[in-house]
Specification:
The protein is mainly α and 231 residues long. The protein contains 11 helices and no strands.
Length: 231
């Protein structure tokens, strides 16, 4: 039986079901990647997409699902299989489902180290929205929360930041939280894909630099060689 719902109302129903699915899956994840993170990224994406005019359904669905198969949080193969079944349950068009999967597979910083692809407008919006939540005041809080979750040192002055050469380098790194600023967070401003993302990132980037200067002054350390991150 063909659905009598309009395309718009059917998509709204699917978005509600996706939201519920994500809420169930993220019930017990660590605080830096919990539902409040997804909510902030969602708001970022809406703000960015006002100018970018990407497909709103793809953007909203992908934002809600952007961490659903993150190997830091889940067993990737199991999460992907569950997602495929869920898409079938909500009668999501296979072509649309594949587009959403393609977006979320190209969001993470780790994947971008190994890949140099031409991003769709939707991928740019979702990637920028997620990266904005990794920088600024919230980004600082998330960095130290995750560092605590992994029992990492605040700073290790004897082991300076490194440059990641592969996704494996990124995933296997156990350096201090301050190193993480140079190895990722301070790099994100220049990796924004949209004009809105770039504008929003600048103020957050500047705040992180101010924070690092204050941090160093309080521990009487001159700081690492570059305040702009490892290029």
């Amino acid at each position: 039986m063909n659905s009598f719902l309009s395309a718009e109302s059917q998509q709204n129903r699917q978005l509600l079901l996706i939201e519920q699915y994500v809420a169930n899956q993220f019930n017990n994840v660590e605080a830096g990647h919990d539902l409040s993170h997804i909510e902030r990224v969602y708001k970022n994406a809406i703000a960015i997409n006002k100018k970018e005019k990407a497909d709103s359904f793809l953007v909203e669905a992908a934002v809600l699902l952007h961490d659903i198969a993150d190997e830091k949080l889940f067993i990737k193969e199991e999460a992907e299989a569950k997602l495929d079944l869920f898409f079938q349950e909500i009668q999501l068009n296979k072509t649309v489902a594949n587009k959403i999967i393609d977006i979320i597979e190209n969001v993470s910083f780790g994947n971008s180290i190994d890949k140099n692809i031409i991003l769709s407008k939707e991928q740019k919006v979702v990637r920028d929205a997620d990266r904005l939540d990794a920088i600024g005041a919230v980004g600082i809080a998330r960095a130290f929360q995750y560092g605590g979750h992994k029992n990492r040192a605040l700073i290790d002055t004897e082991n300076p930041p490194q440059k990641y050469l592969s996704k494996e380098d990124y995933r296997n790194n156990n350096g201090s939280t301050i190193n993480h600023f140079y190895e990722k967070l301070l790099l994100l401003k220049d990796k924004m894909e949209t004009e809105t993302g770039k504008e929003l990132a600048q103020q957050r980037h500047d705040f992180m630099l101010s924070y690092l200067k204050q941090f160093y002054s309080e521990i009487n350390f001159e700081g690492f060689s570059s305040l702009e991150g490892i290029k």
